[in-house]
Amino acid sequence: MLETALSSLSGLPAFLIYFVLAIALVGMFTLVYTWITPHNELELIRADNAAAAIAFGGALVGFALPLSSAISNSLSLLDCAIWGVVALVVQVLTFLVLRVLLKQLPERIAKGELAAGIFAAASAIAVGILNAACMTY
Asked: What element of type H or E holds 51?
């Protein structure tokens, strides 16, 4: 039994390396996403703006889905990082497209309009699911 446990723990270094990379990519996504949006998500969330929390939460989930697929299917750490950046770009483009399709989206989120926040979150998650599925190379 001890041998099985030790064998299982042999994967711990790889887990830690991929987990640190994933956290770094989520941090990078958060910085880029909050930079491209004209409203300050964290400030709005601190002010109890549910629309901002839903929209930003959906964007995070929409990014984490393909990132998890990149981790699962990557051939190396570099491969994972490259596909993680692809996932980041796709999610940022999703917001930019939504901004064109739904007039005044950032302003509506900043005002706390739940419909805008829910739509943004659902769109980000839907694109994230498709993005993740496309990464099952």
From this structure: helix 50-73
